[in-house]
Amino acid sequence: MRKIINDPVYGFITIDHPLIFSILNHPWFQRLRRIQQMALASFVYPGAVHTRFLHSLGAYHLMSSALSELRAKGVDISPEEELAAKAGILLHDIGHGPFSHALEHVLVEDCSHESISRLIMKRLNEEFNGSLDLTILIFNGQYPKRFLHQLISGQLDVDRMDYLTRDSFFTGVSEGVIGYDRILKMLTVHDGDLMVEEKGIYSIEKFLVARRLMYWQVYLHKTVLSAEQMLVRILMRAKELVMDGRLSPDGSPLYHFLEGPAEIDLDRFCRLDDSDVEGLLKRWTRHEDTVLSTLSSWLIDRRLLKIRLGNLPTPAGPLEETRRTVARNLGIGEREACYFVFDGTATNRTYDDRDEKIRVLFKNGEVRDISQVDNALIHQTLASPVKKFYFCFPRS
Amino acid sequence: MRKIINDPVYGFITIDHPLIFSILNHPWFQRLRRIQQMALASFVYPGAVHTRFLHSLGAYHLMSSALSELRAKGVDISPEEELAAKAGILLHDIGHGPFSHALEHVLVEDCSHESISRLIMKRLNEEFNGSLDLTILIFNGQYPKRFLHQLISGQLDVDRMDYLTRDSFFTGVSEGVIGYDRILKMLTVHDGDLMVEEKGIYSIEKFLVARRLMYWQVYLHKTVLSAEQMLVRILMRAKELVMDGRLSPDGSPLYHFLEGPAEIDLDRFCRLDDSDVEGLLKRWTRHEDTVLSTLSSWLIDRRLLKIRLGNLPTPAGPLEETRRTVARNLGIGEREACYFVFDGTATNRTYDDRDEKIRVLFKNGEVRDISQVDNALIHQTLASPVKKFYFCFPRS
Amino acid sequence: MRKIINDPVYGFITIDHPLIFSILNHPWFQRLRRIQQMALASFVYPGAVHTRFLHSLGAYHLMSSALSELRAKGVDISPEEELAAKAGILLHDIGHGPFSHALEHVLVEDCSHESISRLIMKRLNEEFNGSLDLTILIFNGQYPKRFLHQLISGQLDVDRMDYLTRDSFFTGVSEGVIGYDRILKMLTVHDGDLMVEEKGIYSIEKFLVARRLMYWQVYLHKTVLSAEQMLVRILMRAKELVMDGRLSPDGSPLYHFLEGPAEIDLDRFCRLDDSDVEGLLKRWTRHEDTVLSTLSSWLIDRRLLKIRLGNLPTPAGPLEETRRTVARNLGIGEREACYFVFDGTATNRTYDDRDEKIRVLFKNGEVRDISQVDNALIHQTLASPVKKFYFCFPRS
Amino acid sequence: MRKIINDPVYGFITIDHPLIFSILNHPWFQRLRRIQQMALASFVYPGAVHTRFLHSLGAYHLMSSALSELRAKGVDISPEEELAAKAGILLHDIGHGPFSHALEHVLVEDCSHESISRLIMKRLNEEFNGSLDLTILIFNGQYPKRFLHQLISGQLDVDRMDYLTRDSFFTGVSEGVIGYDRILKMLTVHDGDLMVEEKGIYSIEKFLVARRLMYWQVYLHKTVLSAEQMLVRILMRAKELVMDGRLSPDGSPLYHFLEGPAEIDLDRFCRLDDSDVEGLLKRWTRHEDTVLSTLSSWLIDRRLLKIRLGNLPTPAGPLEETRRTVARNLGIGEREACYFVFDGTATNRTYDDRDEKIRVLFKNGEVRDISQVDNALIHQTLASPVKKFYFCFPRS
After folding, report:
1. How open is the CA angle A381-A386-A392, to the nearest 5 degrees?
2. Contact, C9 vs C166, CB < 8 A?
3. Across chain A, what does the average pLDDT equal?
């Protein structure tokens, strides 16, 4: 039982265990084929239409490599632990809905995609007769060999390594390329924790800088931000209209979520994908509500709101004035104009030291944080968040 | 007025003329963002989710390179001709509907995508006040400088060069790689026709072999064939149900086409994209008709029909017998079982010599067909079509 | 004991056995660092300066992959056999001298590089106390598991796979790229012989076509041929002058070989590398003999003889006449002019069916030659040699 | 007059002016074919055997791109200036001798390779009848349009862009990859100076980090340092022996330089290349002087001195003691033992702000140094030099 899947990034990905097959073939996993990894970033980077399905497979591939490198260095990993870690990384994004970055808290209000992933794993575990017990322990960080969890979720996890590599490949932003293969070879385990060998310092620094660049150049690109904010506002407007009885369900599984259910319905959630959002957007282009139809048309046709990005918030004066003009031009109220004219902030840290740290293991047994090594590139200022203010408004 | 677009295949694509911008920003062109180039091939090659939008841009980029190479060799090309050829290649796929390879004659019966492209160009030309006059002449092969048409549509056109390069990039089938940059440098014009310089012979041979490989390994991959045939049958069944009044329109623009209109309605056609097909497939998974719901579920969840590919047709006996078994198992009639059990043929030629030929211009002025050069790799047998027979049926 | 070597082609190459280390560190193997794989081809492809050292390591890497793929398919390969095959491929080129393609039978008259490799292996085996016993059996084709020998030397050996991949990488001739990773995954063993699975047919066809292209476009490129023939003639002239006592040894290890020894002296041979040839060429640019100094200067400064390549031999008339002109211009005799004006032939076969064949194993157990499969690209004509005639003479 | 050269890094490099051809074909430029760009780094990175010839061509290619990008942005560059800048970059490394990094001040004492390049350009200018007048002005920084000089030599010159890209390609250290194509598109000219547009900040930061990584991971890799120091000491010893009359010239052009001439002899210098050094090293392996022969053998066979790299200098005690042991073991004096046991320092700065700075031009016209932008990655500490201490000694 052995299957080989072509991947433009790594060449071939090998699947060789029945449990991995069962996950792969499950309709809920197949759903990830219909959810793009980078959502609206393809408006700026038209090659970036790859799916969460392939990202999950890619991360699984890197997990396989990481585990076999660690084993070659003498780290004790049983076949059960290996399988559980592989299943865990394959499922790490299963809880993502469509356009997740933008819609995460819009579709399902108080629930992160990680929590949904956890719920889904639990359900799958029942279906698979407990085969995911160990996976769930590791995923939740409850397993003593902490490095297994850290490989799934941490500053050096294979999730990040895959998405940076993959997003950089599909966008064509070659500067985001990280040396994932070298980093994998530099990983080690010390006192149960995942660490990097001393000679890997420069690779890690480059990894963090590549990540920084990808954030500002791609993920938080101002045009992408504008498109995402438009999408968020379209769905907020739709919710409002549903509430007011001005928009009625037409069979799309998305309506259930617009009605703001008390509790998440997994079966319904696992039917959602990008086509539902796109389908409604296209339908709404012809809705009677000006806000809903205008924003939907604009987004579908890529006539995006103009956006200004800067270091200071937009003063209330110009904001109000722009709203008044827009209200006049579109023949809508000033409250409605807030859907077209708004501000907000985008934030990123190059190295988040509050979180899991990146630990370097020196030859003499010493352990230091990557920001504490000699002549560190990653200094304190990089650990503090960078905040940018954006201001969106229609093109005149 | 200059815009640079990131492309993972060529690096950067430059747009620098208002007409090209107008085309690019037109909703009908933006629609191509929502139509995947390789449709269901991503079931086998999960990276292959790139769109017709990016392919069109890529072909435009190669056209720019080809024209400037030819000019550097002294071929006379005016700025107007250059612009017209670029607009032509940008629009060459505008008439494609969703899942075009499979659905081309299912959605719009007697109309190829080229004819639709032509209709759309005519409409756009009106909108753009005649700026596409020359483009249309070239596209239709009515312009005296034949090589401009041959660059858009011929055995060595930039369309093929881009799709082979791009499909090979996104599938990860590195063997499909062609030396597009070298071929472009080997192109020349003689007596108004596009030709290849003598020293380009090996590159052209390799191009044809790469194309042959991509056909059998990717485009006509048996799993892809199976998925495409399932999709075709789902839509045929839907048409039947619409006819019988058992399936009623719900707002999807696709229904109009299922009702089999007398004439193509461009405005409706240009609203269609992949999400419409996916949306209906998902909805139909819960339809009361067993054929429609079963096939739709299977396709959505990638539980594809088994397929056998061989050199001989399936004998009527086994075909009938399998149909009877399936009818019994699924509780449907034998006529309905034909939707699950069927045969057909897939055909491809390595070098189609009936069509536009590939002409080689020798240093001494002689012109020969690529299959007529000394020690030719491309011999007569490769010009005749290879036909393979497939047989599809449900997994037991 | 584990070392990782960076390779731009495959990423990382892992060495993990003491015997492999011993070979790698041996001065005779280190010598391969100073012998370029493609010799004078760098006159046309300036990136192609990679060494036989790296090619040997690359082939070793592919051997490791091939063996582990075969093992995963159930082929029985013991650790000893694995080690022996790896040592064998690492040493397969150890008998190459400098500028081997051109000088193979000029420096050491009746001795191919394979024979020298065999002699060297024997000597190393003594040094390594018999650790190479099994390697030698395999290398000589005397071991019952024939596929091990076929992986080292055969139509599908890892030597070819590496050199095609590597030469294509370093020359930048992207069209020479073969899908080595896919071919490795398609290999299988049947009745002790190396074969290709049915679904690998297209990959193999492409491999043969890529090889054909590399031969005519790179290895037998007319400028490369010209440079090689110049080098051969320089050494022939030097031999003549040594014989006549007009050129006396100055400490270069090369002189020993110019004196035409009765028997090969391994210790001396294993001191030879590219720098010896280059050193003498540079010194000879100032020798009193016009033939020697002129040809040496021209080669060092890349002022190569003009070369015409065609399908017919050069008639004796023009040849003689050109010689007379050159004799007059350079003030040398007509016999000497033959060093500047000469003809010859270059030959290559796309698929050499006299030799080891490429066997395809079909699912039904049938075995067919690659040129005998349905719709074969590799037809009979490609198996016959293509012969081209060249004619070299000085630029006027 | 148009020639296309294959380059594995950029694909094709176009030469289209007689002056560029004349430079290219000059024996002094052809000499660069025989000088490796990375010298002894190939002991660690065996793929890194590319030559200064190809690097010079690559930098020329980037210069062509940079100039045409700048022109497209409206920067005024005349055809004469373009040609002069291209000739300048092609010749920027012409003054390099063999193993230049290590031997720069050993072979020719008080003369940097830049000064030699200048002398050579002067001589070539005479040969080419003044065609290099403008090139020399630009190269020397005496031409009013300063950006032309800055493109040849500055923090953002095309020399660096090519060598980082190329060295990273040939070593296989993918982390050294810089986004040279994006950087080129971000260049601009303001008040006569080369600057970077605001949106290029992240690319520049990544460029500096990639450079930092390449220095510590490749150029100053401890094994490379050890090999270089061995080579330096071998030549110092040879000089000493020549002085003492214990080593006598044998025709190698290198001896002239070992005799320590008062003034540089260009004609002799331009005959030197790697093969001269390699030739002598090989010959010296059999010299009677233990220091010369031992170090030469070790270097040729890659039995390198062990090296320790740290933040502190080696104390005198252990140094002396090791020397005594080595003197005893090799039967040489303690003064001679200094050739085998020695310490030293390696230094690098990530961003050298004393030198030419990297200026960022903001949209509002403001100009800031890259270390002064908001949330700068390149902070003050990175501008100060990092110094590491090494200690070399024989393996026991």
Report:
1. 165
2. yes
3. 93
**CATH says B3-220 is which class?**
mainly alpha
Q: How sure is the predictor about D51, in pLDDT bands with cuts at 50, 70 and 90?
A: very high
Q: Taking CA atoms, what residue in B is nearest to A46? A: B54
Secondary structure element (H or E) that encloses residue B48, with its range: none
Nearest residue of B to residue D181, measured between CA atoms: B11
pLDDT (mean) for C127-152 = 97
Does ipTM surpass 0.90 in this model?
A: yes
The backbone region for A261, taken as left when phi is positive above 0, alpha when psi lies in -120 to 50, beta otherwise, is beta
**The CATH number of A222-347 is which of 3.40.1000.10, 2.60.40.10, 1.20.1250.30, 3.40.50.720?**
1.20.1250.30
Residue-wise pLDDT for C212-267, tens only, equals 889 889 999 999 999 999 999 999 999 999 999 999 887 788 988 988 777 888 99
Query: Helix, strand, or coil here: B387?
Result: strand
A211–D contact, CB cutoff 8 A: no
* CATH hierarchy code of domain C3-218+348-391: 1.10.3210.10
Chain A nearest-CA distance from D380, in A, is 11
For residue C40, the distance in angstroms to the closest alpha carbon of chain D comes to 11
Residue C356: per-residue pLDDT: 65
Chain segment D327-360, per-residue pLDDT in tens: 999 999 999 999 999 999 988 877 766 666 899 9
**Residue D304 per-residue DSSP state:** P
- Contact partners, residue C122, CB within 8 Å, separation at least 6: C136
The top-level CATH class assigned to D3-219 is: mainly alpha
- How many residues are recorded in chain C? 396
CA gap C11, D172 in Å, rounded: 6
> What residues does C393 pair with on adjacent strands?
C306
Strand partners, D3: D15
Q: How far apart are CA B385 and CA B214, in angstroms?
A: 15
Partner chains of D (3+ C-beta pairs under 8 Å)? A, B, C
Is the CB of residue D264 less than 8 Å from the CB of residue D118?
Answer: no
Q: What is the pLDDT of residues A85-104, one digit of tens each?
A: 999 999 999 999 999 878 87
Q: Please tell me the distance from the alpha carbon of residue A50 to that of residue A391, in angstroms, as a whole number.
A: 29
Averaged pLDDT for residues B245-274: 88
Is residue D343 a contact partner of residue D390, using CB atoms and an 8 Å limit?
Answer: yes
What stretch(es) of chain A map to CATH 1.20.1250.30? Answer: 222-347
Chain B, 343 to 362: residues with Cβ < 8 Å from chain C are 350
Q: What is the pLDDT of residues B22-41, one digit of tens each?
A: 999 999 999 999 999 999 99
- Strand ranges in D73-117 using DSSP code E only, listed in sequence order: none
C374 burial via Cβ count (<10 Å: 0-12, 13-18, 19+) = exposed
Mark D229-262 as b/e (b = at least 16 C-beta within 10 Å): bbbbbbbebbbbbbeeeebeeeebbbbbbbeeee
| pLDDT band at residue D98 using 50, 70 and 90 as cut-offs | very high
Q: Judge: C279–D274 Cβ closer than 8 Å, yes or no.
A: no
Q: B196 - beta bridge partners? A: B187, B360
Question: Model-level pTM?
Answer: 0.94
- CB atoms B181 and D11 under 8 Å: yes
Residue D58 phi, psi dihedral angles, 5° rounding: -65, -45
Decide if D11 and B72 are in contact by the 8 Å CB cutoff: no
User: Is C8 at the interface with chain D, CB within 8 A?
Assistant: yes
In chain A, residues under CATH classification 1.10.3210.10 are: 3-219
B134, B81 Cβ separation under 8 angstroms: yes
pLDDT-derived band at A252 (thresholds 50, 70, 90) equals confident
Cα(C98)–Cα(C95) distance, integer angstroms: 10
| C300–D27 C-beta distance less than 8 A | yes
- Where residue A123 falls among pLDDT bands split at 50, 70, 90? very high
